């Protein structure tokens, strides 16, 4: 395991400990953690490296009251980008978010306040989303005269379905609290601090064998992109590797010896 504290970044803060749980913190609170081009490059750097550095799970959280206000609208305005400039920028967003979704390391997003536009695209690239009572989700692209460019058409549609996503984009509809949970924008809605809950979940996930987490946090996404026939084939190959790993043998032996925990409701 390498030193997770050695990143030198302007817009993100990265820290980790011996458990392999790494915190990646959006650190532009004065701009509501809006995603400028530099932040996207830093996300690419961090999420390219963390899996190879031995990270066991990641908590993605934010400084300030808001998780992320999406695309840096001021930078976009000032840069006065041409279509090809923005197209290439979107490819960098995809690079960052694909590194997250397909990286094989569980990412738990600790949400609060605004999770809007590109902020929702970022959150939907994590594997688990934890919201609090202040968290709200929206796709204000339509009102801004924009369109999603960071994967919402894939990942947000995957979470809430095409019809809800289109409604969010056309009307600016905001989802929060129980309604957000019910439509699938978050998997946890808590009264307390989402950072703490996300850390708790990350530590739980970090106890799984890394190979199992790799299959869960990479394989499922890849298989969703395949035909059913190819997905079934890939699942078999992956299960062949994962389900015969030394770590699973030990755990199966513990079950057979009746020393392993049983699955019980609370
Ligand atoms: C920003 C941004 C931003 C804040 N880009 N600078 N996203 C949006 O449409 C959301 C735009 N933001 C907001 O609606 C609000 O800022 C918030 C609800 C998130 C927060 O409100 P508030 O009252 O706490 O803050 P504020 O006063 O609006 O903003 C504080 C500062 O953050 C201010 O900068 P300052 O230098 O004047 O102090 C704002 O300019 C700055 N700020 N949000 C740049 N988004 C790949 S395509 C993706 C397309 C999209 O993401 S579209 C959705 C864009």
Automatic annotation (TrEMBL):
Native organism: Ascidiaceihabitans donghaensis
Pfam families referenced in this protein's UniProt entry, alphabetically:
ECH_1 (PF00378)
User: Gene3D superfamilies annotated for this entry?
Assistant: 2-enoyl-CoA Hydratase, Chain A, domain 1, Lyase 2-enoyl-coa Hydratase, Chain A, domain 2
The highest taxon in the source lineage is Bacteria
Sorted alphabetically, the keyword list is: Lyase
The EC number on file is 4.2.1.155
Sequence intervals crossing the membrane: none
Entry protein name? Methylthioacryloyl-CoA hydratase
- Tell me one GO molecular function of this protein: lyase activity
